[in-house]
Amino acid sequence: MRRLSVNLCGTSLDNPIIPASGTFGYGYEFAELYDINILGTFSFKGTTREPRFGNPTPRIAECTAGMINAVGLQNPGVEKVISEELPKMKRVFNKKVMANVSGFSVEDYAYTCERLDHCDEVGWLEVNVSCPNVHGGGMSFGTEPKAAAEVTKAVKAVTKKPVIIKLSPNVTDIVSIAKACEDAGADGISLINTLLGMRIDLRTKKPVIANKMGGFSGAAILPVALRMVYQVYEAVKIPIVGMGGVSCAKDVIEMMLAGATAVEVGAQNLVEPLACKYIIEELPAVMDKYGIKNLTDIIGGAHNG
Amino acid sequence: MKEVIYKVVSNQKIARDVYKMILSGDTSAITAPGQFVNLKLDGFYLRRPISVCDCEPGHLTLIYKVVGGGTELMSTLLPGTEINALSGLGNGYNTDKSGDRPLLVGGGVGVPPLYKLCRELVAKGVKPSVVMGFNSKDDVFYEQEFKALGADVYVATADGSYGEKGFVTDIIKRLHYTFFYTCGPEPMFRAMSGVMKTPGQYSFEERMGCGFGACMGCSCKTLTGNKRICREGPVMNSEEIIWEKEVKG
User: Fold this and answer.
1) Confidence at residue A42, expressed as pLDDT on a 0 to 100 scale
2) How large a percentage of chain A has pLDDT more than 70?
3) Cβ distance of B46 and A273 shorter than 8 Å
4) Which of A24, A25, A33 sits opposite B3 (nearest CB)?
5) Which of A86, A88, A195, B5 gives A216 a disulfide partner, CB atoms 3.0 to 4.6 angstroms apart?
6) Is A131 a catalytic residue?
């Protein structure tokens, strides 16, 4: 176990594997298939101040080596998450969990984070300034350094828990945004959220997704994610949670070499619900194959020389 | 829910673009008629949800229509091919509600899940009526199979080339029933919602991401709260359904 352990913002994880928000619900469905306590932690479904139904359906489209989703942050709202989902989650997961938070104003973010700051089960706040599927908020905070910094400051002011800002890849210069978050006090950066994409149905000649566009994720986006993690690692000192297209143990190692301290697995959970279990199990053998003793030794390893 | 490796036993065309595939493997996760399996197919990222037509310990029957790349690939799979599936997904129909004269209404490839339901209802000692609607004669399948179970079977085709000319609702209007179960296209459901005289259960279809409740891709609003078609559905009670005005494109 020690070979796989990493430290994320002051808390030790048994391994760097974290199912990404929106692909793991609150863990219950997966707990039917395996003991999810083997995970480093997991990031639960994006939470907002008020309940949200999300976008109209269809919300899902198939792509080559990936998928598009336009769920639109469906969730029961922070009060219900605290009163109903967290106690239920505790029955299947006994480690600290990562709370993923979204908002439509700086006040929203601060309010929701302040509420979650009181929950012992929550070990980290992952603040999503990058959802591509909601209008008038979400991603807009993550496409502009000043706005991202403002959210970071407001959240840091209301919580003692480590704050990890989740960034959008749909920007010209992700490095300047990451730096702005670091300067504003962020404890970590997670990236990348989905890439804005679309599909068109040849029979109806209309977009497949009711919302027309959605977030593209899955194996196809790994190279984009690696590049951005690599760039951000060069610019910031705080830990990076790398994600985007990670599907197997080799991808995890690549992501850590690019600069990730921990690695989130997203879309792969949806097509292979046992994905994270398989990855954790295969990591030691893949590490042996590439002469890696401990995973902590390779964080940012691709940058040396 | 269970992840199972099934093996193709047979895979044959039974109507226009419609195939019947028999699989061998662990079916223990399938506990109710109307549940589905989600199949991993080579070259496709998302799994393909297919309703269970029938199953017994060790064997599973799927009937599917070739409508896109995934089902087209399925139609070429030879006996012996292994398929990774998530088995036993969704809630399924509740046979306790049937009363002694249940009505089963299937439209096109909505017919298959009614077969296992019909078999279980007959085993319970009730006599189902089955109304099946198709576009045309070439699309008709499973009429004899339902008759062999002992059900009263009625077939309608839209163009009148087989059975009665018209829609399932034309036949339903003159039947007596204690409860209904249905699976088919949404326009058929809308037509039915105006003429059904008893409560019933509708099985819905939606584009799914995961098929087991994790992604919220197939959510719908109901009078009893938000539901995931793949998890709390695909079967919904008629009393909880909100019929939206516009038909989805």
Assistant:
1) 98
2) 97
3) no
4) A33
5) A195
6) yes
